[in-house]
Specification:
alpha+beta; 4 helices; two-stranded antiparallel ribbon
């Protein structure tokens, strides 16, 4: 997808601040929420599939290179099921295993990530 000049300019200004705020070096993935309930530096580090947007679903990638690869690898290892992605990783607070064949994230999204990120 081609981005407009305005979107490209915004991307150049926002990618570094986004990465600085959301990247969790200790866990090797993005935080789910920063400033939870509007409390500065309170972070929800739950492992969810939303972080895949940062590596391939926007007109520009918010994460590139090794960090993007780490996100995709972690999502594959922790969220991928035969029917799609889990909406929350096993072991996270609030995770409840269910025998639900319909996942929040589709196989189509996984294939798109493969095409965009894993070129």
């Amino acid at each position: 997808m081609r981005a407009s000049p305005l979107v490209r300019a915004l991307a150049q200004r926002t990618t570094a601040p986004f990465e600085a705020r959301f990247w969790d070096a200790e866990r090797g993935h993005l935080a789910d929420v920063v400033d939870v309930d509007h409390e500065a530096v309170r972070v929800d580090a739950s492992f969810r599939p939303d972080q895949t947007f940062a590596v391939g679903d926007l007109p520009f990638a918010l994460l590139k290179g090794i960090r993007a690869r780490r996100v995709v690898d972690a999502v594959e290892a922790r969220l991928l099921t035969p029917l799609g992605l889990r909406s929350l990783a096993p072991g996270e607070a609030g995770y409840t295993p269910r025998d639900c064949p319909c996942q929040a994230w589709s196989l189509g999204e996984l294939l798109r990530l493969d095409r965009v990120v894993l070129k």
